[in-house]
Specification:
The structure is a homodimer of 541-residue chains.
Chain A (H helix, E strand, L loop, with lengths): L1 E5 L3 H13 L4 E5 L12 H5 L14 H8 L2 E3 L2 E7 L4 E6 L4 E6 L2 E4 L3 E3 L12 E2 L4 H12 L5 E5 L3 H12 L3 E5 L11 H14 L2 E3 L4 E5 L6 E4 L3 E3 L2 E4 L3 E3 L17 E2 L11 E3 L4 E4 L6 E2 L4 H15 L13 E4 L4 E6 L2 H6 L4 E9 L10 E9 L5 E8 L3 H13 L24 H14 L4 E2 L1 H5 L7 E4 L10 E2 L18 E4 L4 H12 L5 E4 L2 H4 L5
Helix pairs in contact in A: 1-7
Chain lengths: 541, 541
């Protein structure tokens, strides 16, 4: 079987390699306009930060080594210009000779990826404007840093790539700001998580400016200043990380169905609307596992899964893609953060009757060195009790919490099914009550009515209006609030009537829950626990 | 409701606290013969190693602080001597006054724990013999280390506690040996895993002696030497970690059903055979989630779950315990190891038609600093395709792999349901093809017949007899074996007939799989991949 693969980074090489393993008599050729294939796209920001020291580490395989390993052919500097799905041919230009060649196929895999968005801003072509898509992008930026030319940088875009680049510039002692058009950075997280991360970045010295749009990049030859709708900032470099766009323009008129954003529509076998034509990786539109809605998942991890699934289906082994959950994890200078499944707003939009719980818990036995906190948010459906989404922040292994959630959500678990699981415990790794179980217990308590609370999200949106803040921490913790130690409460709290609206605030939420429990037994009827306490919320009295 | 709780470490305090939260009008009293309650039993080895620096960190709550926090009463130095389940009374001796008192209850929770086994060996009472059960045990041992009296130590027992104590003694520069009666240390792991860990311990300078039984402890006043059935060893201390025994002798004649090992039989609500009497923690016998068979799970993590479940059921909220999976995780000096679900032998004994796969994979993006390997073993049922068990070793976050498996096994997932999940990926955390997914892919390939292999377990048991070892690593790696680079194979491998029995060995197993794929296409019919390669197996030609 003659198979052409357009593009050779993650999804393309994965598909090609698997196709050859499935049947070594296959004739598989990768066509790519680039010199490199199979590079570590996700590692680029870490090369900038010198976390990855050598260029060579960015290259997983050269075209030669890949061919030797897999038996697939690789044609580099070969830019595909059109696809004729009826004739089953592909036209491509040899970028060395400028000659156009026609290639035939039995099966076609499109893995042409995406290119960074280049906004139409005055000054965008100035020296000192960088992107973060190819090894050369990362190499050029690091050279400039190491030569001392870049002391200050502005990253435009507060998504995952922007944050990773900012973290790595910061590691290189570059003074970094992040400019983001949206209301928050990392908008795939719920608002309170994004705000928390903004504060964390600011604490580390990386300034995030949200609701801020770049208007112009100024400078004689080189970048000297960036002008936004709010302020102007001197800078030696601008790193554009405002998103990517599928590199699918050459498919116009091919009859292959595309989404409005230019991604290629696929079914669960990764096939397009045209028989024998498949699409995988950053150029493909897949679907959300929970809602079934089309979703663009431009991730190295999805690319690999999709490449494998396409290859299996092409080889005659029917395998269905399960779809994506929008899983992601990111390292900030001080904390890590991860998410999977539906966000709060996503779940509401999808029509669920949503209940959430935020728990601030230990990530390891509290007495073990390096122990810290996780802030875990669970999002569930009140009717089916299914877990819909999880978000987590902390210094430790947030990826563990996310991967548990990915497994649970993929298997359609209810909150009750996740109660009291026999998770791994020893002091260097976890807590006797596993942090995930702890969060599940809080959610169960809340579903049962044992905790009446205001969530950080609700708090941000004014739900505590009319409530008096009562500081119930172990030691006074909220400036301007009355303080009470619940273990000292006899019959009532002085100055608080039994039907007063009282917001119970402590460091993490747990002591507020214990206080509420006591106050209820004393006849208090209108108390609310502030979930996550001051660990998550900025409380002002 | 008047509730007595016998015992106050993990399960007892958890049950008491939750009972009070469920209804603050409950009258809950903990009776314990000890001075301390609620101490960090699992942290004791780490106190020995000075990983936990201060004694105070071992105490989660004092009796006073616990009472204040929860509203439950605590009677320390109060040893329960008998239970009358008809009269609903408990007799206990006040160890300070030697007076016997009788306490009545509506509900009884037995959480009396377990005590270390003290084998009947000559010399067992000598000064210098230690156990690892109470804070005082750990404190005494560390004092002796810090005073310079202990330069050499022998740990008797190669289970989790024994290994943890050995690791921590090693941290304190004590020369440690481990003596274990069984064929391997950590016998809850499959043999090849246990052997690997023995080698790893030996490499770090901790000598494990298996199939070795202690005969006598020698010395004038203090321990000077330990005599085994194989050898004698000079030592300054002996730490007995040969297991624990439920402290349930006082229940004889109470009518409460017990298992032959002295644990208390419970149902899924943690109730014993007697109405209103519950048992939780190390003294209780629970059940295996997969087989339904009775199982003793003397773990801090189970204790907490059981305490909570008992309290909920006593409070009228029907909640079923899910049972245990035998989950455990342990830190050795050089690697971590974890397990959950059925072992290979356990699965065979339970009547499953078992298939396993061992994969040696990266734990993080290979270019990210600190990246290392996981060795993952998946155990599944050939008929239902259900995942039955997982074992993992590596320098990194083995607990993540185990917790994914716990979630999957608890939700009865098939291997196919676990294919291509949207796990969390970024270079600091994982690989683009998640290590768990990678192992699942190997198992799927094997189930489909795409890989024909010999497992490390089969290899240990002679399955490679009659096979010629062919080294197919990237560079020669197996002494005395022929070497071939599969990318250079034209039509045949010189000197190997197409029907020769050939064992393909590489560093981790992957290259052997690729080689097998090529050799099959050239007409070779009898090749086998050695799963896990030399990373897992000790290959001799």
């Amino acid at each position: 079987m003659k198979i052409l693969v357009i593009g050779g980074v993650a999804a393309g090489t994965k598909a090609a390699a698997k196709l050859m393993r499935e049947d070594r008599s296959n004739d598989v050729t990768i066509l790519t306009k680039s010199d490199d294939i199979s590079y570590a796209g996700c590692g680029l920001p870490y090369y900038v930060g010198n976390v990855i020291e050598n260029k060579s580490q960015l290259i997983v395989n050269t075209p030669q080594s890949f061919s030797k390993l897999t038996g697939a052919k690789v044609l580099t500097k070969t830019e595909v210009t059109s696809v004729d799905t009826k004739a089953k041919t592909v036209k491509a230009i040899d970028l060395t000779t400028s000659q156009e060649n026609t290639y035939t196929y039995d099966k076609l895999v499109i893995a042409c990826g995406a290119a960074p968005v280049k906004p139409l801003i005055e000054g965008i072509d100035k020296d000192g404007v960088f992107y973060m898509r190819t090894p050369q992008d990362a190499i050029s930026l690091r050279e400039r840093i190491e030569s001392g030319e870049i002391k200050r940088a502005v990253v435009v875009g507060g998504g995952f790539i922007g944050i990773e680049v900012a973290e790595n510039l910061h590691k290189q002692n570059v003074k970094v700001s992040i400019v983001e058009m949206a209301d928050t950075i990392l908008p795939m997280f719920d608002e309170e998580f994004s705000l928390y991360m903004e504060n964390s970045l600011a604490d580390s010295g990386i300034m995030p400016f949200t609701k801020t749009q770049v208007v112009e990049i100024l400078g004689e030859d080189k970048v000297e200043k960036i002008k936004t709708n709010k302020r102007a900032m001197k800078t030696d470099a601008v790193i554009m990380a405002v998103g990517i766009r599928p590199a699918t323009k050459f498919l116009e008129g091919s009859g292959i169905d595309m989404m409005p954003n230019g991604t290629i529509k696929t079914d669960t076998s990764m096939k397009t609307n045209i028989d024998d034509v498949y699409a995988v990786g950053d150029c493909a539109c897949v679907f959300n596992e929970q809602t079934g809605a089309p979703e663009w998942s431009a991730m190295g991890s999805s690319a690999n899964v999709e490449g494998r699934i396409a290859a299996k289906n092409i080889s005659g082994e029917k395998t269905e893609y399960k779809g994506v959950l929008g899983t992601a994890v990111v390292k900030l200078p001080e904390i890590n953060a991860g998410r999977t499944g539906l966000s709060y707003n996503g779940a509401v939009k999808s029509g669920y009757d949503v209940i959430t719980a935020v728990a601030a818990v230990d990530d390891k036995a509290h007495y073990y060195p390096g122990a810290d906190s996780f802030i875990i948010k669970l999002i569930a459906d009140k009717n089916s009790h299914k877990l819909l989404g999880v978000q987590v922040m902390g210094k430790g292994a947030v990826d563990k919490i996310i991967d548990i959630a990915v497994t649970a959500i993929s298997l359609s678990a209810t909150v009750e099914q996740l109660e009291g699981l026999d998770f791994a415990y020893a002091p260097p790794f976890s807590t006797a009550i596993h942090p995930f179980s702890h969060a599940i217990n809080v959610l169960l308590n809340k579903m049962k009515g044992d905790i009446e609370s205001i969530t950080p999200y609700e708090y941000l949106h004014g739900a505590a209006e009319g409530y008096r803040v009562l500081d119930v921490s172990k030691a006074p913790n909220v400036e301007g609030a009355d303080f009470v130690d619940f273990t000292e409460i006899k019959d009532a709290v002085d100055g608080y009537a039994k039907d007063d609206k009282i917001l119970l605030v402590c460091n993490r939420g747990r002591r507020a829950y214990l206080t509420q429990n006591v106050l209820k037994s004393k006849g208090y009827t209108n108390t609310r626990v502030l979930e996550g306490g001051t660990a998550v919320n900025t409380v002002e009295v």
